[in-house]
Amino acid sequence: MATLKDVAAAAGVSVATVSLVLNGRDAGRVKATVSERVRQAAAELGYAPNLLARSLKTRQTHTIGLISDSVASTPFAGRMLAGAQDAAWAAGSLLVLIDTGGHSDMEDAAVQALVQRDVDALIYASMYHRVVELPTVPQELPLVVLDGRPAGEQPAADWVVPDEHNGARAAVTHLIEAGHDRIGFILVDEDIPAVHERLAGYRQALEDHELPYIPELVVRAPGNDARMAVETAHRLLSRQDRPTAVFCFSDRVAMGVFRAARHLDLSIPGDVSVVGFDDQENVADSLEPELTTVALPHYDMGSWAAKRVLARVEEQEDGGEQRHMLMPCPLVIRQSVAPPHSGYPGSATGAPAGTPARSSGSRR
User: Where is this region: Disordered (predicted)?
Assistant: First the structure.
């Protein structure tokens, strides 16, 4: 295994010069041609730094511990891990993951295991946006909560969550700008931040465009999947004054709307436009027509969490201060939205309620 002395001999410089170059402290201190010669010699010899020796000197192991409740086993949220890992790797750090599988009693033991391995910082990742009870973490260890907010008066921690409010607002605004003025909203019957924030965003978009909030058009499915949403969507779309468009809490709920529309012989987007939320892989892009939706920024949140916790380690960006991030949720426009046609029952520009509506578009 090549050593600093070997690299120094190959480059014809001192060990101190090699150390400056390979630790990135050569700017203004070592000639550019010499620095290039050192790096080339290190590459040719396959030199790798002794991380144990470096950690003893700097008191950093260049590792980040990540504890997740069940993110690692959930393909839907796996891009959070990819974002965190890529950001850590780019900064020369390694991400060490422990997935507790949702067992909260394992979390304190997981923290202890990572602390014993001298990680520089911790990320606590939640499978979905929620208020979390954090495990016991040493006060001096930087901590970032990924896709969650610490509950109550817990130890100081930075956190990053999706901007559910403005994501929903953008989705409903897209429907309004397409010409819709009767927009239904299918929520799920859960008390979680995403439900409250997306409802607030829906109402904000209506208010922005001076449209009334109609409580009868806001309904709740018993669960967040297509099977549980079908019956709720069927009731909403069977109304004589049915909405011309439906905003859905999730892409899986939108699947339920697609099924209900098919049962009622309604086309999408010919008879009813649909927008989802999540941009879930193999769902939003697999429906026919493909679903317009709002993307959850999992990768960007993971990347932000890793960069932020490393900044805390380096005491950059006011490292001692808490920082919160609402990550933008971009609108992904596909084919499930169209202007309302004149035959819409209940439409302000359409036929009287109850008049059959047909579309020239392909039917589901």
Answer: 337-364
